[in-house]
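Running log. JK asked me to keep both predictions on one page so they can be read side by side. First protein, sequence followed by its C-alpha cells:
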Amino acid sequence: MAKQVSMVRKSLILSLVVGMVVGMGNGSVFGIYLMANLGRGNFAEWGGWGVQSYNPIYFNGFMTWTMLVFGVAFIWILLSALYGHDKMSKIQEGGGH
C-alpha cells in the first residue's frame, strides 16, 4: 500500500499564497480602521515612495508591516489547522490509537 502524503505537504504552496493574500487583506482592513479612528494627519507624515513606505514611523510603513504580519500569521494559522486535520485523520485510520 502506498504511503499517503500529508495534507500540509500537498497544499503548502496554495496555503502560502492564499494565507498571505487573505492575511494581508485583513491587515489592510485593520489599518483602514486605525486610519478612520486616529485620523490621517498631515500629508507629509503619511509616508512616501520606495524605502520610506516600509518605515513604520510613517503610517504607510505601519500599514505595510501590519499587512505583512497579518499575512504571516494567517499562513501559520492555516498550516496549523491543516496539520491538526492531518493528525486527526491518521488517528482515525489507525483505529483510534
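And the second, directly underneath as requested:
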Amino acid sequence: MTKLIDLVFICSSVILNISVSLVYVVTKLGDMALTQVFGGIAVSMIVPFTVTLLGYVRAREKKRIIISNGIVLFYLLLELLLDYVLKIPFREILAIHVPYIVVFYAALFSMMAVSFEKNKKMGYVVIATFWILIGCLIYNLLPT
C-alpha cells in the first residue's frame, strides 16, 4: 500500500509543478481563463496530497516525510485561501507575499526531498519539473 501512496505523491508533485508552470506561462500571455483552469488544477492537488498525508501517517512513515507532505498541503491550503476564498491581491502586499513565497518554496523542496527518498529515478523527474517551473517563472518575470 505504501508504494501506491508513494506513486500518488510523486505523480501529484509532477502535476503540481507542471500546472504552476502553465499558470506562469498563460499569465504572461494574458489568458486569464487558462490561468484559472491551471490554477484550479494546482489547487485540486489538495485531494491527493491529503490522501498521501493520511496514508503516510497510517503507515507510520518517518516524521520528515509526514512533515514534508504537511508543508505541501499547507501551501495548497494557503493558495486556496488567498486566491480563491479571500480573493485578495496578496502578491501586491509585500507583508503577505514574502511569507507566501517562503511557504511555496518550502513545499517545492519538500516534494523533491520526499520524491527522491521514495524513488530516486522519479525524484529526478520531480526535480526536472521543478526546473521547468523555474524557467516558466523567469519567462513570466521577463519584461515584454
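Observation for JK regarding the second prediction: The longest helix spans residues 2-28.
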